[in-house]
Design goal:
With 452 residues, the protein is α/β, with parallel strands linked by helices. It has 19 helices and six strands.
Length: 452
């Protein structure tokens, strides 16, 4: 059973249930204690040992049922009558145990033989959907498919009609066995490879250009929305842990001795030094013109999913004029909020200078020395005055000014782009046209808020 448990742990990890080596040891001890006779007790004991969150409990239940449930093996029915099913087969069929199992329709023995052959064929190592056909064939070969095919071919050469009929029945059983093998491999793919396929798909989406000419496919868009939220949660978990660790500090001897005075010098109250930690205060200013709207949507989704580690989040959007979108983002999901923003200010001629005027006139008091300003836009202002003086004012009043441009750096300064002029007022100016680039830049922002 140890090998089965190890495969079960791999299936759990593939389903995004974290199982550490220490937890695997605990699970083995739990299984040895409760035994395997009572299925529900066994399941509940392993769940209590391995699942840490409500989501993991749900994934554990789904994986456990898929791993430990065996559906009935659909073996071909044996021929009616008292005659030995192997009697009319050619001599090549006599020593074949698999042929006997197929001709007698022994479903339990066939299921056990398939499990043993799958272990030899290493079916549980499946990682990609493209491996299913090859592993199905390998599984059948481990069971003895080549021998069965020789028996069927020999039966077809017999002059005896009864021998030919027996060969046809064996061929029907072989086809049923092939279907069972394909279904078995498909179940193994669901257990061990479905998550790896999803991870590969997400890796490709993380590198997909956000401002592609053909737009983003709706199916990809939904997956990318889920992916960006998962990225944000990963960063939030990482920096929340760092913040918690930073507060533990070192022993504060002076304050500990002062508190011990009331106890005759006995240090009953231990005081540790603490470190002041700033949570990021972020102001996001996003161009929502057609060429940049998709990137703005993902940036706002990312930032609004970081509520655990962000002290204050203010969001503004502009095309021709600039407006605050905090209320829209609070009332709607980010993906629908962008549509509401477009209804209000979309389809206007992009004017960076006018938008900077709107921000400085109405919202400049949002900035202080603890605020990081993240500007997302292609800096194409249709040859209008870029108002460099206003961007310089924003830079002086903020902790950092970061500009994310969906265009390649080689495009900066070409045509109506004033990015090369804005760049000198930015602490950081980087191309950002994929989710992977967005994650790395936001992580850099969080990393600058270090304990002090």
């Amino acid at each position: 059973m140890q090998g089965a448990l190890e495969d079960f742990f791999r299936a759990l990890r593939a389903s995004d249930v974290r199982v550490s080596p220490a937890e695997a040891i605990d699970a083995h001890r739990t299984a040895a204690t409760v035994g395997f006779a009572d299925r529900e007790l066994f399941k509940d004991a392993l769940c209590a040992t391995l699942a840490k969150t409500a989501d993991e409990v749900e994934r554990f239940d789904r994986t456990f049922d898929a791993f430990f449930t065996r559906r009935a093996f659909a073996a071909a029915p044996p021929e009616q009558g008292d005659q030995d099913p192997m009697a009319n087969l050619p001599q090549e069929g006599e020593p074949s145990e698999l042929a006997r199992l197929l001709m007698t329709g022994d479903a339990a023995a066939l299921a056990q033989a398939m499990e043993e052959a799958a272990e030899r064929a290493e079916v549980s190592q499946i990682r990609l959907s493209t491996q299913r056909s090859r592993l199905t064939r390998k599984l059948l070969e481990e069971m003895g498919l080549a021998e069965i095919e020789r028996i069927i071919a020999a039966a077809g050469r017999l002059d005896d009609p009864r021998g030919q009929a027996a060969g046809e029945r064996l061929d029907g059983a072989r086809q049923a066995l092939a279907k069972e093998a394909a279904a078995y491999v498909e179940r193994q793919h669901g257990l061990y490879a479905s998550e790896s396929g999803r991870a590969l798909r997400e890796e490709l989406l993380a590198r997909k250009a956000l401002n592609s000419d053909g737009g983003i496919d709706p199916v990809d868009l939904a997956m990318m929305q889920t992916l960006v939220k998962r990225m944000a949660k990963r960063l939030a978990d990482r920096y929340s842990r760092r913040r918690h660790v930073a507060w533990t500090g070192h022993l504060d001897v002076r304050r500990t001795l002062r508190k011990s005075m009331g106890y005759g010098g006995m240090p009953f109250d231990i005081v540790f030094k603490t470190k002041k930690i700033d949570k990021p205060s972020i102001v996001a200013i996003c161009d929502v013109s057609k060429s940049v709207a998709a990137a703005a949507q993902f940036l706002l989704t990312f930032l609004y999913s970081l509520n655990e580690v962000v002290d204050r989040m203010e969001a503004f959007a502009f095309s021709g004029r600039m407006i605050s979108v905090n209320s829209l983002l609070d009332e709607h999901k980010v993906e629908t909020a962008i549509l509401e923003v477009l209804k209000q200010i979309g389809f206007q001629q992009t004017d960076y200078g006018r938008s900077l005027e709107d921000f400085c006139d109405q919202h400049l008091d949002q900035l202080d020395r603890h605020t990081t300003v993240i500007f997302l836009g292609d800096a194409r202002s249709n040859y209008a005055d870029p108002r460099l003086d206003l961007l310089a004012t924003i830079q002086r009043r903020s902790r950092a000014l970061i500009w994310l441009n969906p265009e390649p750096e080689s495009y900066w300064g070409q045509g109506d782009s004033v990015m090369h002029r804005y760049q000198r007022f930015c602490h950081v100016a980087k191309p950002c046209n994929t989710l992977g680039q967005l994650e790395r830049i936001i992580e850099d922002v969080l990393r600058t808020y270090i304990p002090h």
